[in-house]
């Protein structure tokens, strides 16, 4: 290291303040001693002096700037020094005093030891006296605590008192009687706690809203706080779930149970249950309490249900004894809703109790498995009680004993037929005793006493099955319709807890094995009574029923009965939606049976003889071509509704309507007027009552089919659901596609039968016209004397027949359908009369007048029926009036005015003229025919042009 570097080291250390003053001085000495010449030492001295002056100057500045602080520090230091000196003097004096005290106490140690022993003895005596005074006040305080339901303080007091009497105060003879009393109180204390616990679980009053009909349970703030669901000061602190136990799925609260003497412990139910459980635990009676609650569960639930029944009776304002004789399932519905609410409260309270049991037994006092129960046991017992209750209200015993055989698909046979053919084992001979003592007086008295003891024990523990249920309505299987939906909702809640529900199994077994069969039997019996006998399809509803149904015309009583039964089944589908498919199958079976009966009745009307020959109108109504043509006419299409509104009459010109009527007339005439034979009487319906029956069947089945159609449209098929869509927001669940298709097919068959009946009436009226008018030309004489001018007898019969049918159909059919039947009838009659000219042998002027009178008579009658002038009959009358002229005059009129009739009609007219007036050679007839052809062709060409 160089001298320059060495000389810099002390100054740098001084400026930086890193070394102490002594080290700095030693470095200066070392530097001066190591210097070789005087000049260097002078330089170092000069540098040091300069640094000293700078330091002194800086120190003076610092002292000047911090004079006050330095002054205060010096004063404080002086004060501390003075205090330390004074403290040393005091300690020295104390040490001297302690030494003198030690010397004095050494001389008095025996006397002090005696005084200390006396003080300990007096203190122990005072403590025992104080304990005795407290023991004397235990009973009074216990009574006060129990009266105020402060059971935890009462339990702690009695436990501590007994422990004191059996411990420190064991040898006090004066407390022997008090000790015995307190021990007895302690032994009976758990009975009070268990009774109070049972009361809190089963007898705690529910909110009043539970008794209001049609209202749902909603807890008020006060009620919520009672159940420990509020955030009050005494709310428990939530803890993690209890792992490894059956109660791990529920939240168990770990918190210090405290009892406030200044508040009502019942204000917070959860804390009160914890207090009772803690008290039983302190008495070491918690296993007894759990077992007692488990054994008394059945009897307590029975009592709870009976109390709820009495509440329903009081709220209804009726006498409970008389309610059982009335069919009023709404009270049963209210009763079940109330019981469901109470069951939820009971399960909730049991859950709170079990949570506290597991909390207390997780660290000590384990419970045996046969003593402990869980929340599933509670719900199982609730379901068992409800099952017994429902079996009484649903009259399960009588329903099952008188159960009718349901149709296939609703009830499967439960008995194996092979057991009838299996080889049976021979029965073992029974051992017959020679004599018995069971009937002796001693045995009877002993048996009676034993039974009384067992009955008393069972009643005390709630184990007796002799549960007398007072009912709020008449027992009936159909009560299930009023309670199924709330019952199903309750079962869903139970299944969320227990995964399976015995109550659900009971309801399913009852509905499938009893109720469905009874419903089917009832419906079948009603329908069988309505459709039994020959006049089943003749009986119609009365006027009052017709007004209630709002129908314009009478309906068959059988149809209304079947519709009422179907409506009942539809209501059952809504009441029991889970069995909608079964009820829909039942509806289809009922409809299928009724359809067969309607078809059978229809065949009885339209069929005559044993060879299955049918009337003409029936065969035509079944004919595809004729039926298709008639359904294509505007008059038929106007009868068909579309979207709930009737179509307006199709607008057709007069020529188009005449063409359609002409086509219908040609079809009918071609089928009935082609030969010389007449229509047999057995091929028409001569009884007006039968036609009335057909009209009633039409109106009834059309009304019935429309109602069924609306019902079918309201159903949702399963195929309409999307793959990810489980159900639609509808009241009924989706129906199987096959069943729904069957229903729609049956509805269409009813519609078809109704339309066939209307077509039958339409055609039957026209066949009657043929039946009466064909003999007019084929059998009557129109070349007779002058006095034979009255209308033909067949014409009079036709008018009478038409009037009878008009009167019948006016009462049985709606006006639009009546109009459809008689509309265009005049054109058909005119066509029949004009076509019948070929069957007349001869005719004279008197015959022409007679034929015109026939036409006029029919025209007047049809005008009275249809209330419109039948102008088509004027055409027939004009046709026969042409016979007043000779054929040449007729041909001249055709040449001048054009043809008014067809070629065939003019030809038959000319032929009749030549048959009637002799002397006209065949050549003249042929010439007139030839001229007629040329005139008709000319007129046709002009029309086309």
TrEMBL record:
InterPro entries: Sec8/EXOC4 (IPR039682), Sec8_exocyst_N (IPR007191), Sec8_M (IPR048630). One of its GO terms (biological process) is protein transport. Residues 48-144 form the Exocyst complex component Sec8 N-terminal domain. Residues 271-453 form the Exocyst complex component Sec8 middle helical bundle domain. It comes from the Eukaryota. Transmembrane segments: none annotated. Keywords: Exocytosis, Protein transport, Transport. Component of the exocyst complex involved in the docking of exocytic vesicles with fusion sites on the plasma membrane. Belongs to the SEC8 family. This is Exocyst complex component Sec8. It comes from Biomphalaria pfeifferi.
């Amino acid at each position: 290291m160089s001298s320059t570097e060495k000389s810099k080291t002390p100054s740098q250390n001084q400026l930086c303040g890193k070394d102490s003053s002594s080290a700095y001085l030693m470095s200066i000495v070392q530097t001066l001693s190591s210097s070789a010449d005087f000049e260097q030492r002078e330089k170092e001295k000069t540098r040091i002096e300069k640094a000293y002056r700078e330091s002194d100057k800086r120190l003076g500045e610092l002292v000047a700037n911090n004079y006050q602080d330095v002054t205060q520090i010096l004063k404080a230091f002086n004060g501390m020094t003075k205090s330390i000196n004074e403290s040393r003097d005091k300690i020295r004096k104390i040490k001297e005093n302690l030494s003198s005290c030690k010397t004095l106490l050494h001389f008095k140690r025996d006397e002090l030891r005696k005084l200390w022993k006396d003080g300990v003895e007096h203190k122990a005596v005072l403590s025992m006296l104080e304990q005795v005074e407290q023991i004397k006040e235990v009973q009074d305080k216990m009574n006060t605590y129990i009266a105020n339901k402060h059971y935890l303080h009462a339990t702690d007091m009695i436990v501590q008192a007994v422990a004191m009497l059996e411990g420190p105060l064991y040898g006090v003879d004066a407390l022997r009687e008090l000790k015995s009393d307190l021990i007895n109180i302690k032994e009976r204390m758990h009975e009070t706690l268990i009774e109070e616990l049972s009361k809190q679980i089963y007898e705690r009053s529910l909110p009043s809203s539970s008794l209001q009909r049609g209202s749902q349970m909603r807890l008020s703030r006060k009620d919520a706080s009672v159940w420990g669901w509020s955030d009050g000061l005494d709310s428990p602190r939530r803890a993690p779930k209890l792992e490894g136990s059956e109660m791990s799925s529920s939240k168990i609260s770990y918190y210090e149970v405290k009892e406030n003497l200044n508040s009502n412990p019942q204000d917070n139910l959860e804390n009160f249950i914890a207090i009772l459980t803690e008290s039983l635990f302190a008495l070491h009676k918690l296993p007894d309490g759990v077992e007692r609650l488990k054994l008394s569960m059945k009897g307590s639930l029975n009592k709870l249900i009976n109390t709820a029944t009495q509440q329903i009776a009081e709220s209804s304002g009726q006498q409970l004894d008389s309610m059982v004789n009335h069919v009023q399932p709404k009270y049963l519905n209210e009763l079940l809703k109330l019981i469901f609410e109470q069951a939820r409260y009971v399960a909730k309270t049991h859950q709170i109790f079990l949570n506290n049991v597991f909390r207390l037994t997780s660290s000590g006092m384990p419970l045996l498995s046969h003593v402990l129960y869980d929340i599933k046991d509670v719900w199982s017992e609730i379901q068992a009680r409800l099952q017994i209750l429902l079996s009484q209200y649903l009259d399960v015993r009588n329903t099952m004993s008188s159960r009718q055989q349901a149709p296939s698909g609703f009830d499967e046979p439960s008995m194996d037929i092979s057991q009838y053919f299996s080889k049976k084992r021979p029965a073992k001979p029974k051992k017959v005793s020679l004599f018995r003592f069971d009937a002796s007086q001693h045995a009877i008295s002993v048996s009676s006493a034993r039974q009384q003891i067992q009955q008393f024990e069972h009643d005390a523990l709630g184990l007796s099955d002799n549960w007398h249920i007072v009912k709020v309505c008449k027992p009936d299987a159909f009560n299930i319709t009023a309670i199924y939906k709330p019952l199903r909702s309750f079962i869903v809640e139970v299944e969320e807890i227990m995964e399976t529900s015995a109550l659900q199994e009971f309801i399913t077994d009852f509905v499938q094995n009893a109720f469905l069969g009874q419903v089917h039997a009832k419906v079948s019996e009603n329908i069988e009574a309505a459709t039994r006998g020959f006049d089943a399809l003749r009986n119609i509803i009365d006027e009052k029923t017709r007004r209630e149904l709002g129908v314009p015309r009478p309906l068959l009583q059988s149809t209304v009965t079947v519709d009422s039964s179907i409506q009942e089944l539809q209501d059952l589908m809504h009441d029991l939606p889970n069995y909608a498919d079964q009820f829909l199958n039942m509806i289809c079976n009922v409809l299928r049976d009724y359809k067969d009966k309607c078809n059978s009745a229809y065949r009885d009307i339209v069929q005559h003889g044993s060879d299955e020959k049918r009337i003409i109108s029936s065969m035509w109504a079944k004919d595809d071509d004729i039926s298709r043509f008639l359904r294509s006419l505007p008059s038929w299409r106007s009868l068909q509704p579309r979207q709930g509104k009737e179509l307006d009459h199709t607008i057709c010109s007069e020529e188009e309507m005449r063409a359609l009527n002409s086509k219908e007339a040609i079809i009918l005439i071609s089928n009935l007027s082609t030969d010389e034979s007449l229509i047999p009487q057995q091929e028409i319906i001569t009884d007006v009552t039968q036609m009335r029956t057909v009209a009633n069947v039409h109106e009834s089945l059309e009304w019935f089919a429309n109602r069924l159609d609306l019902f079918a449209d309201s159903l949702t098929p399963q195929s309409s659901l999307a793959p990810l869509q489980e159900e639609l927001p509808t009241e009924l669940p989706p129906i199987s596609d096959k069943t729904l298709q069957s229903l729609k097919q049956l509805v269409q068959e009813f519609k078809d039968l109704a339309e066939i009946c209307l077509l039958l009436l339409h055609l039957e009226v026209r066949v009657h016209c043929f039946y009466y008018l064909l003999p007019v030309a084929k059998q009557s004489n129109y070349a007779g004397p002058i006095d034979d001018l009255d209308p033909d007898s067949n014409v009079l019969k036709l008018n009478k027949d038409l009037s009878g049918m008009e009167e019948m159909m006016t009462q049985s059919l709606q006006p639009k359908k009546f109009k459809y039947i008689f509309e265009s009838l005049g054109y058909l009659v005119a066509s029949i009369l004009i076509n019948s000219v070929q069957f007349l042998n001869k005719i004279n002027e008197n015959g022409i007048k007679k034929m015109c009178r026939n036409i006029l008579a029919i025209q007047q009658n049809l005008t009275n029926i249809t209330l419109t002038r039948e102008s088509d009959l004027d055409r027939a009358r004009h046709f026969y009036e042409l016979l007043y002229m000779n054929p040449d005059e007729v041909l001249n009129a055709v040449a001048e005015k054009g043809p008014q009739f067809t070629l065939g009609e003019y030809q038959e007219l000319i032929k009749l003229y030549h048959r009637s007036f002799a002397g006209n050679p065949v050549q003249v007839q042929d010439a007139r025919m030839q001229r007629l052809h040329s005139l008709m062709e000319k007129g046709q060409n002009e029309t086309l042009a």
